[in-house]
Specification:
Blueprint lengths: L2 H20 L2 E4 L10 E4 L2 H12 L2 E2 L9 E10 L4 E9 L8 E2 L6 E9 L11 H19 L6
Antiparallel strand pairs: 1-2, 3-6, 4-5, 4-7
Helix pairs in contact: 1-3
This protein binds 2-acetamido-2-deoxy-beta-D-glucopyranose (NAG) (3 copies).
């Protein structure tokens, strides 16, 4: 490719690609009943803080850190008496939400599943998440490679 074409590509990604890559939407809900039809939210600090505060109800040592990368989280835990909890929403990547310990893990909680992923609305069903997040990571790396030389991008 000639320099000019590369530059035009970079500019195109700068103008069109970046907003769609970096504006993230996730499903949000906080119990099994409202997770049947979760709402769709735009990730920002207050949305990620809200998910973090929900996690604090069930997990130990949830960090109060803030980072600039948002992920979509879905975590679902079940008690031995059949009562379960489900949380979906935006979360900071640095929260490492799937490595948290349940606050009553010693007694009767057992975590059934937890994942986070980085594409829009990827926190619906567990099965597609791995695939979709790796696609997003590739897209992000390509975009950041192409962006490195665009002034003001
Ligand atoms: C949690 O996940 C299990 C297994 O995927 C599922 O059977 C259960 O209904 C889920 N619980 C909630 C509250 O979604
Ligand atoms: C999110 O939480 C952090 C850490 O507690 C806090 O510093 C920040 O002001 C909060 N942001 C919003 C928008 O609530
Ligand atoms: C979670 O913990 C495991 C084992 O300690 C570690 O290998 C893994 O990298 C951690 N994942 C994250 C996202 O921190």
């Amino acid at each position: 490719m000639s320099q000019k074409i590369i530059y035009l590509l970079q500019l195109l990604i700068c103008l069109v690609g970046v907003p769609t890559v970096f504006t993230k939407e996730c499903y949000q809900c906080n119990n099994p009943a409202n997770c049947v039809s979760p709402s769709v939210i735009q990730c920002d600090q207050s949305a990620a803080n809200r998910t973090r505060d929900e996690l604090k109800l069930y997990f130990l040592n949830v960090p109060d850190i803030v980072s600039s990368n948002y992920m979509c989280l879905r975590t679902n835990s079940t008690q031995s008496n059949g009562i379960s909890t489900e949380i979906r929403g935006c979360i900071y990547d640095e929260t490492k939400a799937c490595n948290l310990t349940l606050n009553t893990a010693g007694s009767h909680w057992s975590r059934s599943n937890c994942f986070y992923c980085s594409t829009n609305l990827c926190n619906s069903a567990p099965n597609i998440a791995g695939y979709r997040s790796s696609v997003a990571i590739i897209a992000l790396s390509v975009a950041s490679l192409l962006l490195t030389n665009v002034p003001g991008c």
